Amino acid sequence: MRAAVGLRNTRKTELPSAALTRVLLASLGARTAPFALLFALSGANAADLLTAFHPSAAKSEFGAVSELEFATRLAQLEPGSLAHHLPQAMKDFRLTEKIWVIGYKTLLVDARGQAPSENYLCHTFFSDQRVDQHQENELKGIYSDAFTPEVRLPEGFGIPLTPDVGLHWMPMFNNRGDEPVRVAMKVVLTVIRDKDVRKPLQPLYASLRSVQVPHLYFVPPGGDRRKVQFELPFNGRIHFLGTHIHPHGESIELFNESRGERVWIGKREGGPESPMPTYSSVAGYPIHAGERYRITAVYSNPTKEPVDAMAGLFMLYSRE
Ligand SMILES: [Cu+2]
Question: How far apart are the CA of 82 and the centre of ligand 1, in A?
Fold first, then answer.
């Protein structure tokens, strides 16, 4: 299959051989051929150009909505790999025109092109910088995780991205099982192209706050509660909050200490791996420079072993 030609083994965590890759891709069959091609295209290391816009089924009164798609190749996840960012799965992108990102969706597929039964997505970032351990950075970007696999911004807001900024996509995987697995991650970015804007969109900026740096920690049998305090150094409004959490996480709360009030709490209502809610508001929550905030994450661990954990909030806000 020609689509497999561009695949190369550069790291030991990658697929065992190019020949096997070809067999796997051939086994994807005609139905998933466009997706197989996406894997092959993702083999390039230089910044890929994001130009293949296609119309979206989503509607907005702020302009015609388009979609951009990209994906990793099939990647091998070793058993027990947590918060794993495969270097060869990260990608750099450039735009050739200004866009407004209004939504982001990630999905995983196995070698047969099917959604895997287990959950292998840790979290992903698509942004104008590499998200590292610095919590103070302001980003232009968007995120997803296993329990918030899709984000849609409140109507009238967008994340402006322009051709002059380098864009970075970091997909992060978990494999809590005992067997290696091969999966690929696919993204659908929902955007309004600047040339299609009918009514002005309001720009949103992003900040990621984790209760713990480094982000990965372990919760002992029983449970765990940890918190982080910080200041937001500007005036503005929070319009979107999404949690990053792992199985057995119960809640993540944002609390305004200066005003003594809860901004929002994301609570898990189903089982230990059920989806998490998000906060999304056109009016938003007003923030004033210098106010103190606190994020509290609660885990309960009914097992007899420590469980892996991450806990943070992805915040999107407008500035005044
Ligand atoms: Cu994670």
Answer: 8
